Amino acid sequence: MDSDLLFAKMLAEDLDLPFDSTFLEPICAHCERREPENATKEQKLLKCSRCQDTLYCSRECQLADWKRGHKVKCKLIASANKAFNEAVQREEVMPSSPDTVYLDSIPTEEEAMDQLIDAYRLRVEDDYVYNAENRGLYGLQDPYPDFYHFLNLAEKRTGVLPKWWNKTKRKECERRALNEDNWCCIAFAIEKSDIQEHYKDSLMPMKLRMLAQKIYGRGLM
């Protein structure tokens, strides 16, 4: 599974939607006929007019898939797309402007630090689950050196760290990450459901994954 497909799968899980790889690949959702490369206008698959995601090669396939279950999924997908697009417009997912830093949009410095730490924690969990990488806590090691490397990478990236970030703030962030009384302590493993429950936000895992991807410079694959 490539990184785009994996990201889509995780997003579907975050939104409690059934995952369908045809969301990304030009394949008829009913008969699985593929759209040819460099397709002409007549050869292009048609989108469901309601959810704007599911593809069909013909009206017959669309009607058959509607009866088979798309009638139920369609409303959910359309609602999820609407919620996601509205969140993007409000810049709750990631700022739309390349000049805007996501962590600058967080109300307090402490909350921004916690999200930065949780972006690391969730990425270590994802790398273990999806890539079988055992590092830091998952490699039965002291997680601090791995987290230290994560912050070094963040400081090398443009458009990641907030304007107020400096050496003193970094030390404070490290203390928060090592404090076992804090929610975001790197000594404890975390899962997607923990993130959603703590932040009361079903899209928070995706936000943190996007932040970690900017810092590492690569997706999960």
Q: Which features would summarize this protein structure in a list?
A:
2 strands; 221 residues; 2 domains; two-stranded antiparallel sheet; mainly alpha
Task: Characterize the structure shown.
By secondary structure, the chain is mainly α. It has two domains: 3-89, no CATH class; 102-216, no CATH class. Helices cover 51% and strands 2% of the residues. The protein has seven helices and two strands, in the order αββαααααα. The chain has helices spanning 3-14, 59-89, 109-131, 144-156, 167-178, 192-199, 204-216, and strands at 46-47, 55-56. Strands 1-2 form a two-stranded antiparallel sheet. Strand 1 and strand 2 (55-56) form a beta hairpin. Helix 3 packs across helix 7. The longest helix has 31 residues, at 59-89. The model is unreliable at 93-97 (pLDDT under 50).
**What's the order of the H and E elements?**
HEEHHHHHH
Termini gap: 8 Å
- Report the total helices: 7
Radius of gyration: 20 Å
Number of domains: 2
Q: Main beta sheet: strand number and arrangement?
A: 2 strands, antiparallel
> What coarse outline follows from CA principal-axis ratios?
elongated
For the biggest β-sheet, the strand order reads 1-2
Q: What fraction strand?
A: under 5%
Calculate the mean pLDDT score and round it: 82
Derived structural class: mainly alpha
- The count of β-strands is 2
In the predicted model, the low-confidence regions spanning at least 5 consecutive residues are: 93-97
Classify the helix fraction into a percent range. Answer: 40-55%
